Amino acid sequence: MTGKKPALPRIAAHMAATADGKISTRRFTPSQFTSPADKARLHEIRAAHDAILAGRGTVAADTMSMRLSNEKLRAARIRRGLPAEPLRVVVSNAGRLDPAWKIFQHRGSPLVVFSTTRMPAQTRSAIAPLCDLYLFEAPAVPLRAAMALLRPAYGVRSLVCEGGGELLRSLAEGGMLDEIHLTVAPVVFGGSGAPTLTGLPGGFLPNPMEFQIARLRTIGDECVLHLVRGKKKRTRV
Ligand SMILES: NC(=O)c1ccc[n+]([C@@H]2O[C@H](COP(=O)([O-])OP(=O)(O)OC[C@H]3O[C@@H](n4cnc5c(N)ncnc54)[C@H](OP(=O)(O)O)[C@@H]3O)[C@@H](O)[C@H]2O)c1
Predict the structure, then answer these.
(1) Domain count for the chain
(2) Range of 53's domain?
(3) pTM, whole model, 2 decimals?
(4) What is the DSSP string of 28-95?
(5) Which is the closest atom of ligand 1 to the Cα of 33?
(6) Is there a domain that residue 69 lies in?
(7) C-alpha 37 – ligand 1 centre gap (Å)
(8) Has residue 2 been placed in a domain?
(9) Ligand 1 geometric centre to CA of 237 (Å)
(10) Are 68 and 76 in contact (CB under 8 A)?
(11) Among candidates 189, 221, 229, which has minimal Cα distance to 18?
């Protein structure tokens, strides 16, 4: 035993927010406040990673399949010696997942589900043939251990989390967020209880996470940011 921590994949998040930092519409419906170009970029970012990660809330609300449907992007991945689509990963503590969801119907890439022994037995037997199911004997998924499994078991070196806020918050709290791809749309939603990048308004993170701007573009009427973890020397006034 060396005591060395298992290597995590490099973890990015890809999210869209309003100018007032909200990530969901009033009814928590799929995020339809960004442009078609932003939706296309979602697929480009998917294609650039070995795996896609989402929380149960997002998979259910956005009826996600997490597939990569763009033929050009699929072909480019194959030319690079990769599978046509990235691995798909879903996390749920309570494990109340519906085998009828799109995510379980799409068989174009393997699906990994990290959950706990809280998952109802009926759900376990229904989804086990449709995914690689990992059930941790704990009330909540130990997220770092789950992420650390992906590299040795599936060769995942890079992963993009597509939300939602609650999952992003866990990644941030665990110090696991290396990059953020953020689209800021020129719209203001308000809503004192509306989720932000780190979920529903609540406590501060144990420590602020600092990022540097790796790239900043204005595309159409949206601001597209690529943030990379790291401190910049600031003059404090
Ligand atoms: N604007 C955007 O870019 C964007 C992106 C994604 C989602 N959204 C929106 O965000 C809303 C969903 O938000 P949300 O906060 O509910 O999403 P979420 O984080 O995807 O889902 C929350 C659920 O995911 C599971 N989960 C979260 N963190 C976990 C962890 N560390 N370990 C194990 N399971 C974990 C839990 O499932 P269980 O309850 O099953 O235990 C939790 O209740 C939707 O309206 C969606 O449209 C917006």
Answers:
(1) 1
(2) 10-229
(3) 0.95
(4) -----SS-HHHHHHHHHHHHTSSEEEEEHHHHHHTT-------HHHHHHHHHTTS-SS-EEEEE-SS-
(5) 1
(6) yes
(7) 24
(8) no
(9) 37
(10) no
(11) 189
- Altogether, the residues listed in the chain come to a count of 237
Ligand 1 centre to CA of 172 (Å) is 14
Degrees to nearest 5, angle at CA 127 with 121 and 128: 85
Gap between the Cα atoms of 10 and 179, Å rounded: 8
Per-residue pLDDT of the chain (237 residues; tens, 9 = 90+): 456 777 899 999 999 999 999 999 887 777 778 999 999 999 999 999 999 999 999 999 888 999 999 999 999 999 999 999 999 999 999 999 999 999 999 999 999 999 999 999 999 999 999 999 999 999 999 999 999 999 999 999 999 999 999 999 999 999 999 999 999 999 999 988 889 999 988 889 988 999 999 999 999 999 999 999 998 765 554
Cα separation, 221 vs 225, in Å, equals: 13
In the reported structure, the alpha carbon of residue 234 is separated from the centroid of ligand 1 by a whole-number distance in angstroms of 33
DSSP code at position 199: B
CATH of the domain at 151: 3.40.430.10
Pocket of ligand 1 (CB under 6 A): 15-16, 23-24, 28, 30-31, 54-58, 61-62, 91-94, 96, 140-141, 143, 162-167, 170, 195, 199
In a domain, 5, yes or no: no
What one-character DSSP code corresponds to residue 129? G
